[in-house]
Amino acid sequence: MHKSISDWLNPIPLLAILRGIAPHEVDEVGDVLITIGYRILEVPLNSPDPYDSIQQLAKRYSGSALIGAGTVLKPEQVPQVANAGGALIVSPNLNPEVVKATKRMGMISVPGVFTPTEAFQALDAGADALKIFPGDAISPSYCKALRAVLPKDTLLVVTGGVNAANLAEFLSVSNGAGIGSALYSPGKAIIQIRGDALKFVHALPEGLSND
């Protein structure tokens, strides 16, 4: 039985966005994140050789992590991610055809939305969770208001502008957070990546972290 996105968001509800990562880096970076407890790793498709990186991560952490692609804009990209072993499709926007293609492939769909209209359209298309983006343009109170009108079992993952200082507040009104440049950026030393990854884990509300 395949795990759901909610399973992967426990006990650490953080999605690591590895934008710009290259295949020669993914093993070392992945090992650091997995050892700390991260269980969802996303390689945006505007990274160098993204399908190679996804394939490496999917093989290395098969069954122990959810690996997939971000910045998926076209439905024809979905099978390419699946062929690389990815099981997660994340987008900055809502393209219902991408969502439908993702679900046809039996993968987890997390499209980007900002308004209630987009949120309901995404759910109607079959989305498993909603990426609230850009997070730095909203407040936790916005997420709370949005959640109030959505079905109670809707999963929200805030992405963009989430940092260790505001993480707990955003998680009080959502189910997870996508962490990008605050966690990884090209050229960042592995010791710094580890330190920043730990900062987010330590900033989790009590009871969420297994640290």
Automatic annotation (TrEMBL):
Pfam families: Aldolase
The entry's keywords: Carbohydrate metabolism, Lyase
Pathway(s) where this gene product acts: Carbohydrate acid metabolism
Enzyme class: lyase
Its EC number(s): 4.1.2.21
GO MF term set: 2-dehydro-3-deoxy-6-phosphogalactonate aldolase activity
Keyword Lyase: yes
Annotated family: Belongs to the KHG/KDPG aldolase family.
Subunit structure: Homotrimer.
Name of the protein described by the UniProt record: 2-dehydro-3-deoxy-6-phosphogalactonate aldolase
